[in-house]
Amino acid sequence: MSDRLEIGTADVRDAPERWEVLGATREFAGRIFTVRRDSVRMPNGDGTEIVHRDVVEHPGSVGILAVDADDRVLLLRQYRHACAAMLWEAPAGLRDVSGEPLHELAARELLEEAGYRAGRWDVLVDVLPSSGMSDEQVRIFLARDLAEVPADQIDFERVHEEADMPVVWVPLDEAVRKVLAGELRNMIAVTGILAAQAARAGGYGDLRPVEAPEG
Questions:
Q1: Which of 114, 116, 201, 214 is the most exposed place for a label (fewest CB within 10 A)?
Q2: 162 is catalytic
C-alpha cells in the first residue's frame, strides 16, 4: 500500500511556504539580479539535515499578449545574448519602477516596444519561470481593443537590443502551431500564446481583472 498523501483536485493549488533559513550570504550582485546562498533546514526526518540553495533574486517582470480584432497576436524580434539567438517574443518589461501598478507597466511596455495602446486589459496567466533557482514572478496580461500610436507621439528612445525590433502579427492558431513545432521558445510568448488559446476556447470568460493578486 502506498503511503503517499491522498490529495483531491480541489487542493491542487500553489500555496506560500517558507522552510527555516539558518543563514544567508550574498554571492553575486549584478545590475538586474543578485544571487544569495541560503542554508535551509529540511523539515523531514529529525530536522538535522541542512542544505544550501542558491537563489537568484529578481525584481520580476510583466508580459503582454496582444490580440487584435482578427485574432492575431503581436510578436517582436529581439536579440538575446545569453541564448545566442534572435527570438520572437511578446512585449515584456522589468518591474523597475517601485509601486507602479503592473497593468500600467504592461501598458507602458506595449506602447514603448510595439507602439500600441489597448482599450481592454485582463490577467492572462501568472508564472514562476524558474522556480528551482529564482524568485522571479511574471504576470502576463491579455491586451485587446488595440490602437496603433504614431511614432512621433511616443516619448521613448529604443536603444541597445531594442533599437531594431521588427513587429509582426501572427494568427493565434498559427502561433500555437509554431510553439508546438519548437519555432517559438521565449517563455512569455509560449505561455501567453497557449494561455490565450485556452482562454479563447472559453470565450475569455475566466480571465481575472488586472487588480487580481498574485500568488
A1: 201
A2: yes
